[in-house]
Amino acid sequence: MTLYYYSGTHWDREWYQSFQGFRYRLVPMMNELIEVLESQPDFAVFHLDGQTIVLEDFLEIEPGKRGRLQRLIQDRRIIIGPWYVMPDEYLLSGESLIRNLMKGIHISRAWGTEAWKYGYLCDIFGHIAQMPQIFNGFGISHAAIGRGVNDHAVPAHFLWRSPDGSECITFKLQDEGLYGAFLVALNDADSKKLTGEERESFLKERIDYELNRSSFPVHLLMDSCDHGHVRKDTNEVLAMLERLYPEAELKHVNIEQMGAQMEQYREQMAVRTGELNEPTKKKGFNRLLPNILSSYYPLKQANDQCQTLLEKWVEPLTALASLKGYSIQKTYLDLAWKYLLQNHPHDSICGCSIDQVHRDMRYRFDQSAGISDQLIRDVMDQEANKYVSSEGSWRKVVSIWNPLPFARRTAVTVDIDLDIKYPFTNEVHYGYEVKNSFKLYSHLGEEIPYGLVSMRKNWKHRAFNRNVGEFNRHTVTFVADLPALGYAEYDVVPFVGTCRYMEVMSRHEREVENEHLKLTIGHDGTISIYNKGNGQRYEHLLSYLDDGEIGDGYNHANPVEDRLISSYGAPCIMERIENGPARTVFQITHTITVPSRMEQLPYGFVRSSDNAVLTIRSKIGLSQGASYVDVETTVINNVRDHRLRVALPTGCQSDTYFVNQPYAFVERKTGVDTSTQDWKECAVVEKQMGGIVGKRGEDGIGLAFVSAYGLHECAAPDDEYGNIHVTLLRSFSRTVESNGEEGGQLIGELSYKYAIAPLDAHTCYADLVRLQETLQAGVRTWTAAIGDEYKLAAPASQFQISESNICLSALKRPENGNENEIIVRCCNMSSDNSTARFYSSHEVRNVIKVNLNEEGSEALKHEKDGFDIELKAWELQTYRIQFMA
Description:
- The protein has 885 residues and is of the alpha+beta class.
- Helix content is 22%, strand content 34%.
- It is built from 14 helices and 50 strands.
- The strands form 12 sheets. Strands 26-27-30-31-40-37-36-33-34 form a 9-stranded antiparallel β-sheet, with helices on one face. Strands 11, 15, 16, 19, 41 and 42 form a 6-stranded antiparallel β-sheet that branches.
- Helix 1 (19-39) crosses helix 2 (53-61) and helix 11 packs antiparallel against helix 13 (355-384).
- The radius of gyration is 29 Å and the shape is globular.
């Protein structure tokens, strides 16, 4: 028998104290660790919680201690990495998880050591299906997890397998004490004032419990806890263990050695495949805490927006600029990622900390987004330099950028800025309102009909990095053909006379249709969608449910005496606010009377008898060519202590539903597992989604909800209507270790952006991923003055991936800074082997298969204009592409 002893800490960077509060505790903990290890050369090893950010935080206060700390790290007595911060898995993009590990490994090497080759997930609230594949991509094949699975469901050692077949030999931390089970036992013995044989007998009973969890002769005792210090008497504890278990081989080492020892038992291990999100059955420290998914919605929205800016805009554009000879300083990009990653610790992004933590997070999101916007503007400014105006010309060009690796024919709404002295005007309604007169043309000279959405006279606008000018801004909608990862130009040509387009999509105040769908607004403010392709109709979509909330950042909880309020029967106003040849938009405003707050009376909680009006305003659009309905919702939240959900009765009677998460879609049972009703933490119907949730029948027909930003909690309650519920917000006052704070109430205006997509039998998961990316990325445009001699460029794609089950995860410059190279990462979003073609407008010299840390040398076949991608089911793969100089 081998008995491993783990010395370590679990360091929450911010939680029930602010970052500065916890750092004030971190510095003495680190100073003590250095002193103990230096004074006790036989103290073998201390694990620094799998994180490297603690090193940065410590050295900002103690820069003079770097040398002493580095010696201990290089001697492998302090184990660092592989993470930069210990993240949440469910709320982040796959790229964020990968960059987190990349940064942790980079920092470890900067300290003169290799990062810990161990997937440490001791305190994360559930685990994604593809985590073993991500770990394997960094050469990590062993892991430890705390929450998400129970002792009764798996033994201490089991094999965790991703959908693609990647595996990690995983140690399940004990339910009773989680990552501090043995420390808890030691503390209990001390609190009971046990000494001598009585103490050793008590501890042996606790240790024997741990030994019985494994059928293999390999065991682990965890001496670690929240913000714990090094145990100065560790050698005395080790001596006691040798007395209690003389037959055991006792090892106080880096537990990578335990992983290596377990390899001989790989074929005998129990296997768990996919996500791990079970609630907790028995009493103890272990809890899943599932409703962190819906806490502090604005933080989750900001995170998704920052991820989109970096992954979909900044990285592809700066990579493209570098290949064109305009290189942007990489440290800007690194800093934007750093600010973002610092918001990814599980207690931060999950919204279960004090208000000060979340205020600090808003600042970091703002800095990340601000850097990203400047980088995008810089690239586009360089592109705009080719436009030169000529005297006497009133001609303009609208340039529309698509950052995604697939072509799009889509309705776009763009701003056209015309000089305030622009002499060409239409007099609409006999001069009551004057608008500028112009026509739009494609590069082929085809006239493009457009709808005028709005006008802003004397609009101040800074064109790129030039001086602020005043313009007449005309916002128009038209159907544009956009190349993959490139831009299209449209000519704005002055027109003498009246320019109007009388063809409109909607001919009824509550209906509109295109070639795929018919959208109808109901009298109660819900909508129905008719799918012309298969004859399926979806009715009563977009009603709202409001109930009471007495929970906190971790858990939703209804009071015993609750009231569930539906928007059915609530007053609503229906308006058609845009109707042109390319797009129609309706606006529905619900005013729902709900209790204004929760009251805590001597006998319990009740929703208040005084009411407030909850205003929910949704813009619901259908565009030419679209196979989905797009929605932008604004909630004016002036109500406290409540939860608001949107309901979509799919009509699908399937007993399963699907959701997305990083690099996978998972299928779950509808309803709730009632067998857990006597567990410590019963199962709840609300579970994770990465913004996409849907149901479909055996024929493949169904309905999906696709969110752009911030919505990560859904439910499929298994009712006769096939409902899907999506949590829009939870307002709560309870905050960890405080008397209650206002931040969690989310008072103010909240915005949402999503689509409702009918599914045909041929609709694949990759189609839904591409729809979500389209909603997230949108387009970016500018208007520039051009001379009469300018000839519009034909739309040209810089990089493209052929339509298949394979989706792009990253297109970026390499971390090593090599010129004439890019990194491309793709994932097969299906359970079938799939192929796709990567096309490049730049001549390819080499294609090399690399791991997630961009290391490797396996050359692949290629041609001058690209190469073929072949991926097995759910496989994630990275490529280094080298171009001719």
